[in-house]
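User: Second chain of the day. Same drill as before.
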Amino acid sequence: MKDEGVWSRASGRGLSRRRLLGSAAAGGATIAGLALAGCGGKTAGTAKSGASGAASKTPQRGGTLTLSENFQRGFDPHILQATDTGMFGLFYSMLIRANPTTYEIEPDLAAKWEVPSQTELVFTLAPNIKWQDKAPASGRPLKVDDIISSYKRIQTNDPKFINKAYLSSVDKMEAVNDTTLKLTLKSPDVTQLGNLAVFSMKILNPEVVEKAAGKFPAAESCVGTGAFVLQATEQNVGSTLVRNPAYFKPGLPYLDQINLKAFGAGTTDFEAEWAAFIAGQIDYRWVPGQDSQKFEAEKKGQYDLGWTGDQIYFITQAQTQKKPWDDPRLQRAMRLLIDHKEFRDQWATTWFGRGRYSAIFGTATADVWDLSEDEYGKYLEFKQPKDDANKEAVQLLSAAGYTKDKPLKFTLAGTSGNGYQSEMTQLAQAQYKKGSQGALDMDIKLFPTAEWATTRAQGNFEYYIGGHSSGGLDPDTYFSSTYKTGGGRNYGHMSDPKLDAMIDKQRTLFDENERKKAVRDIIIYMMDTCPFGSAVPNYILTATPPKLRNFPGQGPTFKWGDHYENIWLNR
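Assistant: Same format as last time:
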């Protein structure tokens, strides 16, 4: 095969810190590491200010890390949105994973991989990988067939398996031997390698899956190959994890124990979290938006501070299979009525500190792949003031039969899982009512955290607004999971054959400039036609105390539990 460098051009990011660690050579040369294909990168504002005080450069072993976390939806990553599964990386592993700082792909279960052609991926597992010593796995060695079992489970057509899009290009999985996995793709796909690093692609023990019979509610049902063993967990109370003594990566983890504390029952109490951090009761917490400027100014030098792009954004979805939400006029009107500037300058600033315009992506992806805010401002949906957009929305609603005298009555759904989601739903309600001049008359229904996942997956809503994540950083993780026909997170069941074809096409473009143009064309096309909209994505100010070393700064949603193996305490 001629070396066309196709995989080495897959990233499309252009910055030296995000370049490939190696390139695919003719005949399938081993890649030491490959950048997450097309993924977003850190923003210009992410340079960190260093914490004061001397710190040892040599990792110290031992100690206990205490954080805020509340496992509320069980422990089955294959049926959950990625934002619910990040901390599962403490005890589950993946074939490959993304680095939380560079976003480059790096080894996990796979020690190395080769790319013999545009449709072949060959992975060689690291040595001495064993399942944790808990029944029914009982410390047996991991085999390639175990990985295939998890991937085939993710591909299941049952709607609850919402992550199947990430394996949609895989045609065949083969165990070449007990340590070599070969994936054959249906056609060339620049995104497939990166899709394997999505948080939800955790590898589960097949015996545990069989025994659990679809339910993973307790610590006993968590048997992975990760750095820590889940010893005990109680919903709305907390969890305890201890070092895995048989972890396959020599010398890791450094910590002896991790204690997780729940703040709030069912609804996360962010104020209590922040107070606990300030009081020294937990070791890390992202900075609340309303405190970010003051904290950044006053605490510079005392913490490692940095603004980072988040991987979550806030989506609106119409249930397009229910009348009247199958009407494109109504779908378009709902998008036009959202005031993105108000969401950015008031809601996002209050909760997170910063936001930006985007119709489709979280900020970590948007900053590399998206239109600029100035460009967005030229489109009617984002244009300020909102007078023209609201006027057109009212005309569309009237044409569809809805006026102030004959309003559309419906329920706007959301989740009560945390304060920012509840407040977001209320702000959207106010914007819809005001901008429509009374043609929309809705009440609000907020679902508890666990119930919300089921409600969305089953499509039991008319219209909703809520936090959403593709689970990855590549634009295709958003396109294929949420906007393509049959996508696992396409809860409103939209279907647009032209868009499907555009999505399929951009996956085949290994030239980064061609692919960026194709992604841009998709964004612009979707702004005029897509029945799903957005509110705003956000940035996070991370503040890491000097005693925490190698800590992957994180916000309220995306959490890099698989990298906690590298954390150590400077004592």
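Residues 338 and 431 are 6 Å apart (CA to CA).

User: Great, on to the next one.
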